Amino acid sequence: MDRALFAILSCSYRISGPVAGYHSRKEVMSAGESMANAGTEESANHERLYTPEPGEWQLTARAIITGCLLGVVISAMNIYFGLRTGWSIGGSLIAAILGFAVWASIHKTFHTRSFSVLETNITQTAGSAAGSMAGAAGLLSSIPALGMLGVELSYTQLVLWAFAIAYLGVFFAVPLRNQMVVVEKLRFPTGTATAETIVSMYAKGSQALAQAGVLVKWGIFAALFTVAAFFVPQLAQPPSAWFGLAAIGAWGFSLLISPLMTGAGLLIGPRVGTSLVLGAIVGWGLLGPLAQSQGWVTGSIMSYQDGPRGWILWPGVAIMVADAMTNLGLSWRTILNTFRRSDKTAAIGMEAENDRVPNSWWLVGLLIGSTVCVFMAWRVFDIPPWMTVIAIALSSVLATIAVRSTGETDINPTGGMGKVTQLAFGGIAPGSTTINLMAAGITSAGASQAGDMMQDLKTGRLLGASPRNQIIAQCIGIAAGIPVATGIYKIFDRAYEIGGTEVPAPAAHAWRAMAEVLSKGFGELPDMAPTAILCGLAFGVTMALTRKLSKKVGTWLPSGLAFGIAMIVPPYYSIAMFIGSMILIVWKKSRPDSAKIFAIAVASGLIAGEGLMGVMTAIMTLLGLGPIT
């Protein structure tokens, strides 16, 4: 999802006017050419978009607190968003924009010391760390998948498990920074976009305040609409019978008016939005009715156990797995380069000694993190310590690949990394779905956090920030995000059936299905489901290969991930996101300048407003409140 944000932002901000320490893109690029032959700090400065003022504030309490507060809001939003769509959004840009806006307003009102560029960087670092806990702690994938299999975990167990795995990726990332950020200067598009955005905000403060204002306004609108729809559900989902469409409405083809889904559509764009609709038509409009008419299933349409919904889940998951694994395989050059030493001088442009992260920090941190992870996996999930050690070792290798992939393409293939581990543990611990899921959860957490940390370190590099301070901010942000994200997950777990119609959790279904197939074999699947799986695998591989071999043809092909997700979630989710992506097209054509500046703000506001109020409606459900119509 960060890639979608970057696609909007990369053409959104046009920096003009003076700003302290700012270098134009042309100056930065020309300076980059000279760095290969110069090892001085002066040459390193030319890589930067900003040169800090002497004594500029950086790791301050206000920057950390602001980032953590914004991060826990983003984390709460991501729980709701991720459990409904299978995706989560990065928090760097939102935290940077809102953090700047908050302190610009405070400075204007109370004449406090100005919030510095480097403080804004610390805010986005802590904010992205806290916001990423929904995914990194496994609350969108392995944990709900385990819940679908009947394993219930307490809040305390979830918090301890999240702390056990969330820090591994941070310490995996630290020793990679020198090679990938300093020496090779991989782009890390979201990290670069965040740095450019921060510099842009300080050059055009009024525009940043306008963006923040738009985000807040649309967030308030989304929150009010969500509350109204909670009490009057027909506002959000008019019954299909009203329009004489009860027959297709039974299969989920109905209108869903959702600020969150509309905002998601604005972010994912027309290709992914169209892919979702096509997947819904094929899965729910063709394959589901076929399975029912042929007697392959006998239950009700929305039954996972013996109905069409449970049957079309399998080809959908197969497409998602094939797409993830094929794209991972097609990145073989990236994987090869990960383990190939560079012939460049590693000392070029390194920060001052007191800004670097001491080796003792990440070595001790990794040792403590691994020990806690081994202990928690043994006590909570009965995973033998030697198996957890294997999972951590595998995680370190796959996290390294994930970091390079993120740096080169802005895609962190956590899904593919998780599937690799699931396949490996299908052999190491055959028949155990719990070990399979939680071992993959370790790998996914490592890849997720390593990629997130490196994006932030890239932002800091471009702004001349201290890596040591960023590591501290990241660790504090993680600690702030885990209790909140876990608590909100437990609220949804109590209020709804996670994996059901209200909260479909498509990513978790894919993890659970993979674990079950590896544990029980194809013989336990519904009639003709193995054939559907093979067809789904072939389709996913073909789409990924065609996109790689022919970019011209590939631009017209659907996204395998979105196509597969559409077979897991009810069609009205896909339709709602498709409508949002079409709104983006109309907006860009009618008012391109407005779309460039405000698209991300409107989308973020819509997602945040419904996401946060979705937590409140879940609490109201637990309190016994409900629709009045």
List keywords for this structure.
single chain, 629 residues, mainly alpha, disordered N terminus
Overall description:
- The protein is mainly α and 629 residues long.
- It has 28 helices and no strands.
- It has helices spanning 2-9, 25-34, 41-45, 61-85, 92-110, 117-131, 133-136, 142-148, 155-166, 168-173, 177-183, 189-203, 205-231, 246-249, 259-293, 308-330, 332-338, 359-381, 385-409, 414-428, 433-463, 467-495, 506-520, 529-549, 551-554, 560-565, 571-590, 592-622.
- Mean pLDDT is 87; it is low at 1-40.
A few lines on this structure:
With 629 residues, the protein is an all-alpha fold. The chain has helices at residues 2-9, 25-34, 41-45, 61-85, 92-110, 117-131, 133-136, 142-148, 155-166, 168-173, 177-183, 189-203, 205-231, 246-249, 259-293, 308-330, 332-338, 359-381, 385-409, 414-428, 433-463, 467-495, 506-520, 529-549, 551-554, 560-565, 571-590, 592-622.
